[in-house]
Amino acid sequence: MSKVLVLYHSVSGNTESMAKEVAKGVEEEGIDVDIKKIADFDLDSITQYEGFIVGSPNYFGSMAAEIKSFFDKSVKFFKKLEWKVGAAFTSTGMQGGGGEMVLLDILKAMMIHGFIVKGEPSAGHFGPVAIGKPDEKILKECRLLGTKTAQLIKKLKK
Question: I need a labelling partner for 15 at 20 to 30 A (CA). Which of 40, 50, 55, 98 fits?
């Protein structure tokens, strides 16, 4: 059975709210999902997942140090994560504040591992970006991100 990890860092609760909605989208597709705060994740369990959806608040136009540290430590599994499916989401303080930069930082780290990343033509192209507390539109995009990530995993398993 396929399994997806929704991994996030959140201080205000905004990114955490998004993570919960992403996980719902994965579950709706019948794929097992673990939702974990970055502080509670055991890096050595990383290879058991087929998909990774990572969320971070925007700190100075980049991912949070806790998320960056996860990717830095993941080098231990370099070339063992190829063909996994990856996706990202973020919360930011203002429009134009660097939210898309955060997404691209996360996706770039995933692609260096050889992850498969799917863009989204009908919503946030790189992933959902909440400005402050996520509204219903962004929560819907989060569920869509989880759904589409799970669908891609199923397509690759055929």
Answer: 50
The Cα 56–Cα 53 span in angstroms is 10
74 neighbors 44 (Cβ within 8 angstroms): no
Cα separation of 26 and 29, whole Å? 5
Q: Is the pTM of this model over 0.90?
A: yes
**Structure tokens belonging to residue 156:** 């690759």
| Residue whose C-alpha is closest to residue 106's, from 73, 75, 62 | 62
Strand partners, 4: 33, 51
Torsion angles phi and psi, residue 131, rounded to 5: -100, 105
Q: Cβ(51)–Cβ(2) under 8 Å?
A: yes
